[in-house]
Structure formats: C-alpha cells, structure tokens
Amino acid sequence: MLESQHDHSTSTTSGRIVAISTSTRRGIPKSNREEVRLIENWGLEGDIHAGEWHRQVSLLAMESVQKMRDKGVPVRPGAFAENITTEFIDIPNLTIGTRVSIGESELEITQIGKECHQKCAIYYRAGDCVMPREGIFAIVKRGGVIRVGDDVVVHKIPSEHNHVQIAIGAVNS
C-alpha cells in the first residue's frame, strides 16, 4: 500500500487513484472504470463534463467519501459525480495553479469547491454533501491513459506564486 509522502527538496506529495468515474449524462452518479484516456484541453474521454472549460476533470479524496460513510450514507467513489477519487492526498487544501501528474498525464487545478445549485440525493439523506466544499476541478495540460492504482504526484507551487495564480483564476472564472 502506498503511503503519503512529502519530499521537501522537490515540494511534492503523492498518493494514488482509488477510482476513475465517468458518465454520459449530468446529475447522476458516475460509473467506475478501470482506465480512461485524459484528453489534453478536454477532459476524460466519454465524460459529459469534458469540454473546453475550466472544470474538465473533478477530483475528490477517498477520505472525503469516508466522511459521508461515517454519517451513515453508503456511498461509493463516483457517487458525488467526481471523475478521479484519490487517497493519501489532502485534495481540499490544494491551491489553484497546482500541477498534478498521473503517469504521463498532467492536470492543473483551476477551482476549489463549487456552488451546489440543486441539493443532491446525498444531501437530502445526510443533511450534508462534501463535494461543494472538498471537491476540486482541473484542466488537462497533458493527456494520456490513467488507471486505478496509478500514482498521483502533486507538485506544489511556491506560496509567493499562489496569490498570483488565485487572482488570475478569480478573474477568469
């Protein structure tokens, strides 16, 4: 089992993919897949949320899914409509502009959390949903095939660049 790692010399952390999920319609739980192709500047092949916009790929930590399980909601990865479910990475605390490598692919974080326009079935059952607070979104900078079990490497950006990246991201939202 891969453990969380932090290397101060390269400022990276790593974890792994627990699940990859796609759907052909909006507003439904996604179906789990063993592998999928990330398409540069588009998103996951065959996913409804792919396209030329800033939320091509969604990510959620398995630890966030577990929070809902602990509240008695029997959810699985993909139930929150996230594309990539990870473990051992502090997904909710990544910053805009952070780069994430999965195999030969690379993502760039573009949004933290989202507004929940309609309360989902999970919200009505548990009175809460983690995706609006703890889910993040990215664009595909470099495509390739990703698989369940692949390592996920987060390349932290220096903190002096975070403010610039966040300001740029806010302007382009």
What is the spatial order of strands in the main beta sheet?
A: 2-7-6-10-9-8-12
**Sheet of most strands:** 7 strands, mixed, barrel
Share in helix: 10-25%
Give the overall form.
globular
Task: Describe the fold and architecture.
By secondary structure, the protein is α+β, with helices and mostly antiparallel strands. It has a single domain, classed as PK beta-barrel domain-like (M1 Pyruvate Kinase, Domain 3). It has 4 helices and 12 strands, in the order ββββββαβββααβββα. The strands form 2 sheets. Strands 2-7-6-10-9-8-12 form a 7-stranded mixed barrel. It has a 3-stranded antiparallel β-sheet with strand order 5-4-11, with no helix packed on it. The longest helix has 14 residues, at 159-172. The chain is globular. Mean pLDDT is 82; it is low at 1-10 and 162-173.
Task: Set down the secondary structure blueprint.
Blueprint: E1 5-7, E2 12-22, E3 31-33, E4 35-39, E5 43-44, E6 57-61, H1 62-70, E7 84-87, E8 99-102, E9 105-112, H2 121-126, H3 131-134, E10 136-142, E11 144-147, E12 151-155, H4 159-172
Parallel strand pairs: 6-7
Antiparallel strand pairs: 1-2, 2-3, 2-7, 2-12, 4-5, 4-11, 6-10, 8-9, 8-12, 9-10
Brief descriptors of the model:
single chain; 173 residues; alpha+beta; M1 Pyruvate Kinase, Domain 3; 7-stranded mixed barrel; 3-stranded antiparallel β-sheet; 4 helices; 19% helix; globular; disordered N terminus
